[in-house]
Amino acid sequence: MAHGQDKTALITGGSRGIGAEIAKRLAADGFTVAVNYASNPGSADAVVKEIVAAGGKAFAVAADVSDAKAVATMFESIAEQASEVAVLVNNAGVMELAPIAKMDAGTFDRMVAINLKGTFNTLQEAARRMGDGGRIINTSSSVTKLRQPAYGPYAATKAAVETLTAILARELRGRNITVNAVAPGPTATELFFKGKSDELIANIKKMAPLERLGEPSDIASVVSFLAGPDGAWINGQTLFANGGAI
Ligand code: NAP
Predict the structure, then answer these.
(1) CB 138 within 8 A of CB 12
(2) Residue-averaged pLDDT of the chain
(3) What is the distance between the alpha carbons of residues 205 and 219, in angstroms, rounded to a whole number?
(4) For a disulfide at 177, which of 51, 57, 134, 240, Cβ 3.0-4.6 Å?
């Protein structure tokens, strides 16, 4: 099923974790994939090589999404190297956990800069440049409903992403562009495992009635659906993908 033929998909934070799996899945769907990364060119190149080896099309693009100028340059570079972005997947994100009483201001600012402002920066470029039939998929988190202690600032950035999603969908009226968000539950990546004990991980696995962590491929499947023809009627929504944890 190569519905992405002749279309370019940009995956922010496509070099590792969930983003790398989304990049591979959309390449298999036929899209030419721009694999964005911030600090780790080796990982982005490895994803590009894997896609090309499987017969797909991909290239790596550097940009810290929190830097509006770098994001504008990245969109320009993608248009020159391939074509205008037809599918934007805002996946780049960072998570630091601490109770509100203990969270330091620098960490708070960094999460807002990458998760919220970073999403805003690419949405702004996409809203200005994207053509008819475009798809935008943002990344929230199931913590916006789970609301566990220590997730406050992180969950707040993701709740803001859900709000931007719903409002941009309405602002793009008449252009045949859908804007949605995916809200994964706990998913087996470096971001999730960092700082968690085996016991805590075992407990988190039991949160969902399906009694396992999500895999990056579980989330990539949802993104593929939203980016493809079968997802055409979903607009302005946040899809929670967490095995039933909430
Ligand atoms: P991850 O394994 O830590 O990967 C993060 C990716 O984001 C990397 O490719 C990283 O690239 C990139 N990135 C970080 N800061 C960036 C920046 N300023 N500009 C551009 N790229 C940047 O994380 P993950 O678990 O796959 O998470 C992906 C998304 O899903 C995030 O938005 C996260 O909040 C969300 N999410 C994850 C879970 C989970 O349990 N894993 C659950 C719900 C939601 P570099 O290596 O180059 O920095």
Answers:
(1) no
(2) 98
(3) 16
(4) 134
Catalytic positions: 154
Nearest atom (ligand 1) to Cα of 158: 34
Candidate from 22, 75, 91, 116 with most ligand 1 atoms within 8 A of CB, to mutate: 91
Q: pTM for this one? A: 0.98
C-alpha to C-alpha distance for 189 and 17, rounded to whole angstroms:
5
C-alpha to C-alpha distances, 158 to 65, 78, 138, 210, nearest whole angstrom: 15, 26, 10, 24
What is the mean predicted confidence (pLDDT) over 54-83? 98
Ligand 1 pocket: which residues have CB below 6 Å?
12-13, 15-19, 36-40, 43, 64-66, 91-95, 114, 118, 139, 141, 184, 186-187, 189-192
Which pLDDT tens digit goes with each residue over 37-49?
999 999 999 999 9
d(C-alpha 123, C-alpha 127), whole Å: 6
CA of 92 to the centre of ligand 1 (A): 4
Domains of the chain: 8-241 (3.40.50.720)
Minimal CA–CA distance to 214: which of 184, 173, 236? 184
83: phi > 0 → left, psi -120 to 50 → alpha, else beta; which? beta
- Closest ligand 1 atom, residue 15 Cα: 9
